[in-house]
Amino acid sequence: MHIAIVGPGAIGCLFASLLSLKKQSNKDSLLLLDHNRERADLLNRQGIIYETDRKQRTMVPVSAEIKSLALKQVDVVLFCVKSHDLQSCLQFYLPLLSPQALLVFLQNGIGHLDIQEQLNLPTTPAFASSSEGATLLAPGHVLHAGRGRSHLGFLQSPTALQQQQLQELAQHFHRAGLEISLSQDIRSQLWAKLFINAGINPLTALYNRTNGQLLTSCAARGRLKNIVREAEAVARACGITINVDPLQATLAVCKSTAKNISSMLQDRRNRRSTEIDAINGAVAREGKRLGIATPFNDEVVEQIKKMESEYNSGTITK
Ligand code: PAF
Prior knowledge:
The protein is globular. The protein has two domains: 2-184, NAD(P)-binding Rossmann-like Domain (Rossmann fold); 187-312, N-(1-d-carboxylethyl)-l-norvaline Dehydrogenase, domain 2 (Orthogonal Bundle). The chain is built from eleven helices and twelve strands. The protein has helices at 10-21, 37-46, 86-93, 115-118, 160-175, 186-207, 218-238, 246-256, 263-269, 280-290, 295-312; strands at residues 2-6, 29-33, 48-52, 57-60, 64-65, 76-79, 102-105, 126-130, 133-138, 141-146, 150-154, 180-182. Bound molecules: pantoate. The site of pantoate has 13 residues, from helix 6.
């Protein structure tokens, strides 16, 4: 199978290294796509440095491009870019792909779930969620800080070919050592991940703490609980199936990824835009639509936006 991964961020580098390390046959290929020429050159020269928390480092050779003629042969494209970059990224890559290529979206939050309608996509996409703990230590250098689970599924009925492509992708990931399953209810899986991101990400960024350190501060822990409970109320009103208590699940992730620098804290430290709109912003918007008050989510949205504007204007340090 020919797979392309768009976006060499933490999770893109993690998946690209695992798939490359366990490349199954010469009929398989992996292409890493990056809009940044300098970084693509670096990835081609040095490969991805894949590090585990036991401090073992492996150099994984990869082939990185901005765009490539080989894209027409790709069977599956996994988009690992930030939710706010997804639209422009799709507009760039769609014309370069075969109409048969399966598009798979792996973003935090739920802001991208109507992307098919928004962009009038000619094909039914698949969605993915993952709780693998990945931290980008430097461009092309990923730390696999904690093992998690990944889920793949469709929101709309797929064709037989799309179903087969997704199954094959899951098999590749499985052989690469990931715990991955096909889900009949990916929307609920994405909400389950949203609860965790809503509780952990903005608070780690605001308090400048690791995931585990949130548990040792009464103030942070109290806010986390209120944010997640609000998100749960909104999800229930949306008819989302909830199988695991969202608050317990979020606290468990704080523990199991205690040393992890959340993606939003990584964004803060690198002065990048955060995914707040797709995470707590989405909870607040859905709450408003359904007449459910979400003051704790509203508050972090406002604070994170203020923080972003401060570091954009240079008045906040790392
Ligand atoms: O966004 C992140 O950082 C991760 O999704 C998670 C699960 C919060 C762990 O850090």
